[in-house]
Design goal:
- The structure is a single chain.
- The protein is mainly alpha-helical.
- Helices cover 67% and strands 0% of the residues.
- α1 packs antiparallel against α7.
- It is globular.
Length: 355
């Protein structure tokens, strides 16, 4: 009997069962939580240092919060990778997507910590602003930044279909943005107007006033730079800018106990959110982007000076404080040209040579 050319029976194709891996939005949320823990410990330790509550010993309550936050990040990243590896993935694929650099930050932080002990042995302990510029401390900051920015990179790498605009999927990215900005502002606290309020409310020389103005320009670059990075990738949910601006500025207030500035920075964040909602700045809406870029830092520092005038009073002339506000807006505006440069003119095609 001849073999039939085809069979009417369906072929049974074995179903490939992929191992269930640890990652995704749930893992991002967990990493965002432990990252905020780490940032809280960082600023708590900074507060203790500026208030004379630490000595030259390592074992302090402030270090306990800081290093337990690091340990939590290390455990979550390491356990997730090991479990994925145990479930059959290769070592590279076992690392949750977007967290390779975060995992690299775990041993780097330990190396930096050992290096810091050696540095203190060789050169002594830092004083003044030296802890913010010590090479080993900067390495600690860099490795910590790699860890806390993990959720930001992970969500960045996902397709738009997997990342719907809204708090459910973007909250870990927003928290990571806030934490990233806070690392930058922590290590530039020597030039931060929220920290240097005394130089605005008391009679000081031009050099001290210049320090505040320089801090306004520097912090505008950091704030708007972080916001523009996020805006190029996502449509941030309502309230994101308030969270980033208000929490970061409030954390910086621990250095100078300037908590009376909180209502002003909270209002500045709300204004930024309203502008973002009404103008919808983007690469396609360039004019709206330019207006947004100028107005957000200008409003922030307008409310900063207004709050100081209402509370402690300011000693600056109108030329100085108003000019500083305008300069902050100009810096934000210039950064918008980095995000979206002007269009190049189209090439002119001619059939004859022109002189």
């Amino acid at each position: 009997m001849a073999t039939p050319a085809f069979s009417t029976e369906k072929e049974i194709v074995p179903k490939v069962i992929r191992p269930r891996t640890i990652g995704g939005i749930g893992f991002d949320r967990l990493m965002a939580i432990v990252s905020c823990w780490f940032i809280t410990g960082t600023f708590l330790d900074g507060w203790a240092h500026t208030h004379g509550l630490v000595d030259r010993t390592f074992f302090t309550p402030w270090h306990a919060v800081l290093y337990s936050g690091y340990f939590a990040n290390a455990v979550v990243l390491t356990v997730a990778t090991l479990l994925n590896r145990w479930r059959g993935l290769s070592w590279l694929k076992a690392i949750p997507q977007g967290y390779i650099l975060a995992l690299f930050g775990v041993p780097l932080f330990m190396i930096a910590g050992v290096g810091d002990l050696i540095w203190h042995t060789l050169f002594g302990f830092e004083v003044g602003i030296e802890p913010l510029l010590s090479p080993t401390h900067l390495l600690l900051a860099f490795s910590g930044l790699l860890m806390i920015s993990g959720p930001l990179r992970a969500i960045w790498l996902r397709s738009d279909a997997d990342v719907a605009p809204g708090w459910r999927t973007l909250l870990p990215a927003v928290l990571a943005l806030m934490a990233t900005l806070s690392i930058f502002t922590f290590f530039t606290s020597f030039a931060h107007p929220v920290v240097d309020v005394w130089f605005v409310t008391q009679p000081v020389n031009d050099g001290q006033k210049s320090r505040v103005v320089a801090g306004i320009l520097l912090q505008t670059v950091l704030l708007m730079g972080v916001l523009f990075v996020a805006m190029r990738r996502w449509r941030l949910p309502p309230g994101s800018l308030t969270l980033i601006i208000a929490i970061n500025a409030s954390l910086m207030m621990v250095f100078s106990d300037s908590y009376y500035l909180i209502p002003g920075v909270l209002l500045a964040g709300l204004v930024a959110d309203v502008l973002f909602w009404r103008l919808q700045p983007s690469e396609e809406r360039v004019e709206a982007l330019r207006i947004f870029a100028f107005t957000v830092p200008a409003v922030f520092y307008l409310l900063y000076f207004a709050t100081l005038e209402i509370t402690d009073g300011i000693t600056w002339s109108i030329h100085l404080w108003l000019g500083s506000i305008v300069m902050a807006g100009i810096v934000g505006l210039l950064l918008s040209y980095v995000m979206v440069p002007p269009q190049r003119p189209t090439a002119h095609v001619s059939g004859t040579d022109e002189i």
